[in-house]
Amino acid sequence: MPISSLPYSVQVLTADFINDFQLFDLDEQVPFISGMAPGDPATGGGGGTRLRGFNVPYFRNGFYRSQTPESNSIERVEVIKGPQSAIYGRVAPGGVVNYISKKPQTKFRTGIAAIAGSYDYNRVDAYVTGPLVKDRLYYRLDVAYYDMERATEFWFNRTFNLSAGVTYKISPNTSLTFEVEHTDRMMNNYYAQARYIDRRGSDDPADWVISGSVYDLPDRRIAERLVNFNVSGEERRTSRKMIHIIYSLNTAWPRT
Predict the structure, then answer these.
(1) CA 115 – CA 128 distance, rounded (Å)
(2) Which residue among 46, 108, 124, 200 has its CA within the 20 to 30 Å range from the CA of 142?
């Protein structure tokens, strides 16, 4: 069903739009979404983002998730505004954000992209998709890695993401898709910049001591090394799996 026929307000950011403007994070996409205000950029992943004054829940393919996904595996971003977003089963007066995954394709395709920018920003994305069994089984693999910093000293974010999907065509009108996503993120937000860890020559974390300000150290390069590799910023490893079946009643009305 076309968006213009829906009885509620929906705004969509397509994959082409996201790639053309390099909007890889929800915080970067917010200025292009009316009624949405950015959260605290130091938290990453759209933390604290509000839509029409209310906190925003995130979904992927209609299923709730606690954090925004990485953009390398996203086909489009749907922003459903207003209380009508309750169709997703979660009360959100301002609306919800629903991320739609990229699907395996029937023809073989592959691609790679590399980006470099200010504040030591480096990003590499790659994908491959195609058929495993002709007219029956298809696959897709998306990989991304980025390393970024900001104007705040000692802030960094290093993230690796792998997303894979397999689609089995049960019948002309029915398909089953299995998706898996794994993310490794090492992030040091600005709250960690003022402290460092003194290992005291020991490899046992029980002997380590959290010391004072890195600005008191005589050698700033030593301070940066200590912060980047020893400070207790935040390390996350998350894995998610999803299975969904799509049955098309007709060409305009698929059911999930």
Answers:
(1) 19
(2) 46
| Domain end (from 79, 101, 123) | 101
* pLDDT < 70: residue spans in the chain: 1-4, 39-48, 84-86, 88-91, 152-154, 189-201, 203-234, 250-256
Residue 130 bridge partners (DSSP)? 139
The confidence score (pLDDT) of residue 239 equals: 85
Contact 97, 36 (CB under 8 A): no
Question: Which residue in 131, 113, 156, 84 sits closest to 18, CA to CA?
Answer: 113
What is the C-alpha separation between 145 and 136, in angstroms, rounded?
Answer: 31
Domain co-membership, 154 together with 177? yes
H helical segments located in the chain:
15-21, 26-29, 220-230
> Which H or E run contains 194?
none
Are 200 and 75 within one domain? no
Closest Cα to residue 41, out of 51, 33, 29?
Answer: 29
Q: Would you state the pLDDT for residue 115?
A: 92
- Got the DSSP string for 109-140? EEEEEEEEETTTEEEEEEEEEEEEETTTEEEE
Q: What is the pLDDT of residue 55?
A: 84
Which of 78, 101, 124 represents a domain boundary (last residue)? Answer: 101
pTM: 0.74
CATH code of the domain covering residue 53 = 2.170.130.10
pLDDT at 205: 59
What does the CA dihedral 17, 18, 20, 25 come to, rounded to 10 degrees?
Answer: 150
Give the amino acid at 139. Y
Judge if 158 and 213 occupy the same domain. Answer: no
